[in-house]
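Q: what sequence does this backbone want?
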């Protein structure tokens, strides 16, 4: 062997040792130190197989706060009360994880989530009370009156199973009833293995569901000053700041989470976004919620961490006017369509006549959009995706109604 090849072999060996050291150092402490036999069994063993076959899953876990704090694979994957057990390469794991696998360590948060519209009401918006127990319905109704005790949505029948499974349910199952008796999933906002607050604070996370013409929150946010500032300054924000000590020095530009959930400057973090809302903006005609004044005060307290009272009052006064104006237009349209039914000019079940859709689009797309735009800084949405199409559809409705009355001679 030449000196040259010995030298290369030594260099390679040295590089390998350094490399192994660096890789090992980058791994979470819990894996390298292996402080307890159980931990080795749970995290090390699971990762041995799964790092080879599903590298991403294990890597996402390795980057998580859970890995840093010694929460291991089995802490989540072991069967929670009421869950089906499955033998799995020497371990017993659950076949389907739910919020039940998180609540053992995060019970308070689970309870807040249960009171929110992300829980049972989200499911009931599609399927009504189907799959929910009487207790679950009663519990939710205490906090969200009318949210859960209701019939299934007419689209369930009209559009069929595959539309529900791959469409509506993908968003609304955030509050699905689980076989183990719990409700919903926490992974919609936290993902399954990253489970970070950073992810939950990003607007794109909420935008998985809060998008499109019927709830254009992400589109509105992106055109608002807040969204523009976030785009420009995201890298300057401390998105990993612990929720209990989050301040405006970490987050000086608000995201969806800041206004609806975070407890910035010590004002109290919540998993129930309803706590800060004064109207039912998603409804055709928007009324104040029970406790609306206290809710509104909480949201204004969020704004006031960054703004002076005059600016906040201006936004609310102007948005209140948009709600009033939208309510008036939707009421006019509703009276017109109701009148046709009453006079026997329009018949058949819901969504069986073209005019049903014109009316539905008027409030469900345009009316909602104008109201959401007014509160969240989206001028284009108040006007060109809101008031303008409402005006246009009102003209259309009147023309169609006159035509129908003429046909029926009344
Ligand atoms: C000896 C290798 C091995 C070990 C150890 C192992 N797994 Fe698996 N795991 C697999 C394979 C292979 C699959 C693919 C599906 C199957 O065969 O069940 C799998 C599938 C899974 C699934 C999907 C199951 C499903 O039905 O959808 C989960 C979740 C899972 N493993 C978690 C774990 C956890 C948690 C641990 C440690 C407590 C673990 N695994 C240990 C090899 C392993
Ligand atoms: C914070 C809780 C949590 C921890 C910790 C955790 N998991 Fe999971 N894991 C989940 C959830 C939730 C799912 C989704 C299960 C479902 O759909 O029923 C899941 C799914 C999986 C799957 C199926 C993934 C797929 O895309 O097919 C595998 C495999 C898995 N986990 C392995 C692991 C391994 C290995 C570890 C440790 C390195 C681990 N998990 C740690 C919560 C966790
Ligand atoms: C065995 C207990 C345990 C289980 C099970 C568990 N966690 Fe955790 N979780 C913790 C601990 C401990 C922390 C660190 C808390 C701290 O130091 O403030 C944490 C932190 C978190 C954080 C904050 C992370 C961050 O970036 O600051 C989130 C989000 C979270 N968990 C979500 C979940 C979800 C979702 C599940 C279920 C899929 C779950 N946890 C299951 C114990 C657990
Ligand atoms: C892209 C995700 C997504 C899909 C798909 C989706 N929704 Fe929604 N839905 C939402 C969000 C987000 C809201 C909240 C809107 C708001 O408060 O402004 C909502 C609100 C609602 C509401 C009003 C709130 C309530 O509780 O009464 C109903 C009803 C509803 N959805 C039914 C459905 C039905 C039925 C389908 C399928 C035909 C469907 N949704 C498909 C995300 C979705
Ligand atoms: C998996 C889909 C999904 C994700 C992700 C999601 N939401 Fe929702 N959200 C919904 C649905 C569905 C509703 C409507 C529930 C109902 O009223 O029936 C809703 C309702 C709301 C409401 C209105 C609550 C009320 O009382 O009327 C707010 C505010 C809200 N979400 C904020 C957020 C924020 C902030 C995020 C991100 C941190 C987020 N959501 C992430 C699906 C989602
Ligand atoms: C609608 C989205 C959403 C859902 C669903 C959700 N979270 Fe969160 N979660 C957040 C946001 C946003 C934060 C960060 C709040 C902040 O900015 O301080 C957070 C923070 C957390 C934290 C850190 C709290 C702390 O005080 O350190 C934990 C733990 C957590 N969530 C667990 C859960 C569990 C468990 C569930 C299911 C019962 C759940 N989350 C469901 C959005 C969500
Ligand atoms: C600057 C603060 C702020 C930001 C950022 C913000 N919102 Fe809002 N949001 C509000 C206010 C204020 C309202 C109206 C409150 C009321 O009813 O009094 C509102 C209303 C809503 C509603 C309507 C609930 C209903 O009654 O139907 C939803 C859903 C919502 N926001 C989701 C989001 C999402 C998703 C994002 C991010 C893409 C976001 N918001 C960003 C302040 C904010
Ligand atoms: C975490 C800090 C923060 C919170 C919370 C916050 N904002 Fe802002 N807001 C900003 C920043 C930063 C700007 C851009 C400031 C500038 O140009 O001086 C801004 C700009 C605005 C503007 C545009 C001002 C203009 O004329 O350009 C309005 C309107 C506004 N915010 C309203 C609100 C309302 C209403 C709330 C509560 C529902 C709120 N903000 C919550 C940080 C915040």
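A:
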């Amino acid at each position: 062997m030449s000196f040259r090849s010995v030298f290369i072999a030594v260099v390679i060996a040295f590089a390998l040792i350094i490399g192994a050291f660096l890789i090992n150092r980058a791994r979470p402490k819990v894996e390298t130190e292996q402080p307890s036999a159980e931990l080795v069994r749970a995290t090390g063993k699971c990762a041995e197989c799964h790092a080879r076959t599903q590298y991403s899953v294990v890597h996402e876990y390795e980057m998580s706060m859970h890995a840093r704090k010694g929460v291991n694979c089995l802490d989540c994957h072991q069967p929670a009360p009421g869950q089906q057990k499955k033998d799995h390469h020497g371990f017993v794991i659950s076949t389907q994880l739910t919020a039940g696998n998180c609540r053992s360590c995060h019970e308070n948060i689970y309870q807040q989530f249960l009171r929110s519209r992300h829980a049972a009401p989200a499911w009931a918006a599609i399927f009504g009370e189907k799959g929910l127990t009487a207790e679950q319905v009663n519990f939710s109704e205490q906090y969200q009156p009318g949210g859960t005790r209701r019939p299934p949505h007419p689209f369930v029948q009209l559009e069929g199973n595959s539309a529900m499974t791959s469409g509506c349910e993908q968003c609304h199952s955030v509050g699905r009833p689980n076989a183990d008796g719990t409700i919903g999933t926490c992974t919609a906002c936290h993902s399954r293995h990253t489970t970070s607050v950073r992810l939950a604070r990003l607007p794109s996370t909420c935008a998985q569901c809060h998008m499109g013409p019927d709830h254009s929150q992400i589109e509105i946010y992106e055109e608002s000053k807040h969204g523009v500032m976030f785009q420009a300054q995201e890298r300057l924000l401390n998105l990993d700041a612990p929720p209990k000590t989050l301040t405006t020095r970490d987050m000086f530009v608000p995201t969806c989470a800041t206004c609806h959930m975070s407890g910035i400057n010590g004002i109290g973090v919540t998993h129930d976004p309803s706590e800060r809302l004064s109207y039912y903006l998603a409804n055709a005609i928007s009324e104040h919620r029970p406790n609306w004044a206290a809710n509104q005060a909480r949201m204004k307290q969020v704004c006031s961490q960054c703004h002076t009272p005059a600016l906040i009052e201006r936004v609310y006064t102007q948005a209140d006017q948009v709600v009033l104006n939208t309510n008036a237009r939707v009421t006019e349209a509703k009276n017109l369509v109701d009148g046709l039914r009453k006079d026997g000019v329009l018949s058949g079940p819901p969504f069986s006549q073209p005019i049903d859709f014109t009316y539905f689009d008027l409030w469900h797309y345009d009316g909602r959009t104008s109201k959401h735009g007014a509160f969240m800084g989206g001028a284009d949405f108040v006007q060109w995706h809101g008031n303008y199409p409402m005006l246009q559809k009102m003209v259309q409705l009147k023309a169609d109604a006159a035509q129908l009355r003429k046909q029926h001679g009344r």
